[in-house]
Every structure is written in structure tokens, then in C-alpha cells.
Predict the 3D structure of the following.
Amino acid sequence: MNRLRNIVATTLLILSPLCAVANPAGAPSEPLCDQTALEAPDWIRNRTIYEVNVRQYSEDGTFAAVEADLDRIQDLGIGVIWLMPIQPIGAVNRKGPLGSYYSVADYMGINSEFGDAESFRSLVDAAHDRDIKVIIDWVGNHTAWDNPLTDEHPEFFIKDAEGNFTPPHGTDWTDVIQLDFSNRELWDYMSKAMEYWIIEYDIDGFRCDYAVGLPTKFWNFASRNLRTLDPELFLLAESEAPDLNLHAFHASYGWPMHHTFNSVAKGDKSASAILDQFNRQSIEFPSSTLLLNFTTNHDENSWNGTTAERLGPAKRTFDTLVFTLPGIPLIYNGQEASLAKRLEFFERDPIDWSDLSEMNFYQELTALKASHPALSNPNATFARIPTDRDEQIFAFTRTLGNRQVTVISNLSADPIEIHAADRAIVGEHVDHFTGETTTLSYPAALQLQAWEFRVLTR
């Protein structure tokens, strides 16, 4: 489903050290950089999330097929599997022959297209045996038209003037109907339904779809209940609403950074736009908020194009930023197989796994994220490296004590010679991708081809 997004379009105003931002609706709001985000479980900090579209993952389109591929997923360096919604899909007003995963017909059921309760439990157990966490998609804003709640609790839904159920206002989501969270009994039901998956299947967290559609007070309530049940639970919001990260969610989507990547790749923005966006989100969100970094996901791939379409020859460059900028990196299934098509959303369209030429590249990135403390420790620092070509070059360090990752990337379609002036990078480094030792002086002189990047460690 093409998600309705609450994209933050703001201008950063710097008034001495004070922050002034605009909220997603454009009205002035208070920044949250002086408050601290809900502390995330330690296990998420050095892991890569892998989004699994079960229907399209294999020719079979089943949990069993995903389980059979877990050794390869583990070899890819994945620490968390995120499964798109696994509940039964509504039949009434269904889109396409198979419908949208986001049209949930039973919050505590299993989609028979994928398997049954035992095959799902087997997948979770097999992932845990490999130290891979499992989170599932949760669709709380709306249900299918034929969800049993429409008969059992019609008061849980918003009605139009004639008393009829209605799709979410302002969307084309005609296959679903809007829940009414002004009804506090719905809060209890939804929280209990989420708890069910923890108790019955031992899942490790939720990716919450269109989280901004539900009241923040509900998410605070549900998060508290869920984390009481499992203090190590991980909660990811598909949202850019900063207040959700105060008491409810451990991480949120980095949609604005993703769109900045696309704009820079197209030449519509300069490399400096990435620093601008990083500064903006550092001010808007509570301190220590984790944001999800990505170049693609199910929405982007199906509705806005493949990474090759949107990023072209810059694809690897921006994938590298996904893994080295502060935040949590995401891989969408098939990226390691050079996914070159927009996967169909409402019908079967299996991924072609015949070309795993990108596997080694992503293995290098996941290994760096997993092993280097400067990329995962919350006390690590981020600093932009000044260069004489800052409109084309985005260079930065991530540092923790005497451990450092230095990233220098040419975000332009032209070869370029640059000088980087930062005494913090003077000395010997190891190129993460080649293993070669290189020495940087002050200033450091480098030549970079179009879209070339260097990742140096020490």
C-alpha cells in the first residue's frame, strides 16, 4: 500500500545555539532536542534490519521458504528480520487478486497463503537459533472491511454521516476502513492483540505501520504494556513525528533523509543537503533518537522505482551512507540480488535470486556495522570533514575513543580532486573494502571518480 506520509518539510533556522523548527503541518512547534528519547534495547544498535516480503520472497511465497534461506540471510550479516504483515487479508473490496498485506482481516490470525501457526513458529525459532531477531509489521490505523471487529465491535470504527464505515480520510485506501481511537476500549483490544504475538510466538518487536495515524497517547499506553511484558522488545514507527520517540518508540523512519538521497542522486540538491537534513533531524527529534536509514523498502520499490531507477550509478554510494550515518540500516529483500524490477504489490511476483553479485558488497557493510563500535555505540561522535569541494563531497568521521570510521564520498557525476582539512583524520587508515593501508596528511589530497566513496577505519 502506498503509505500516506507525513513528510517534514522544514527550514532550519539557527539562532545562536537555539533551535527553531516547523512541524509537519507547517505551524511552529517546539523542538525536542533538549529531551531524551526512549532508550533502545542494546541488541538493536549494531544490527542490520532485513525486510522480508514473504509473498514475493520465493516461488512458494511461504514462511517455510524463508526459513530454508536463513543460513544465507545469516551469511549476509542480518541481525533482524522484519516480516511484512502476516495476518489474513480481507476479501471485501480487495485490491488485485491477492490484496494488500495492510488490509488485516484478523489481528490474531495467520495468512494461509504463507503457512500456518506452526510454520510461523518454526521460522521464528529457527531465526532465534541463529541469533536473528524477528519483528512483524503491525497495522493499527485501519482494518479490512470484513475484519470480525466490524460485527463484534462496530463502535471501534469511524462512521460517515450515514453511519457507514469509511476508508481513512484523504487516501485511496478503499480496501480498508478507519478505526476510531477515541474509544478507549479499542486501546485495550489493540494492546492485547499485540501482546498475543509476543506470548504465542516469542517475536522481538513490531514495525508499526502509519504510526502517526494513531494518537501518541495510545502508543505510549501500548508501549508501556508491551515493554512490561518484554523489556527487550523493539518498537519501530513508520513515522516522522518526533514526540513518538519520547515514550513509545525506540526508532522512527528517516523518510526525509531518504528523499534527500534521491534528490542528491538526481542532481537536484548538493552534497551539503545531507548535512542540512542531519542537522535538522538532530534538532527536531529527542536526543539519542534512532532513525531508520534506507535506499529502498516495499513502498519505494513498488511505487516509486528500483534503486537503479532512482539512484542510478550512485546506488552503492548511498547504500554506504545508509550503513555509516548514525541510525539503523535497512536492506529490502532482493537488494543483494540486484533487484531490478518493481515488485507487484497485490499479486505474486517472486524475486529473481539468480544474480547475487551484490551479496559481498552488503556483507562488507553489515560486517562493518556489526563490528565497529564507532557505528553503534551511542557515545560515538559524528563530525563533518571540511573540504574544498563541499557542494560535491560529503565526508565525515564517526569516532569513539581511539576507534574511528572515516567516510569520504563524491556525490556528483564528475571526477574530482579534493583536499580534506581535518587533523582528526591525519595518519594511517585501513580501507574497509580493499584492506589496503592508506595515510592521510593535513590537508589530505584525494582524487575520486564519479560517485566514488572511501570507507577508512582505524
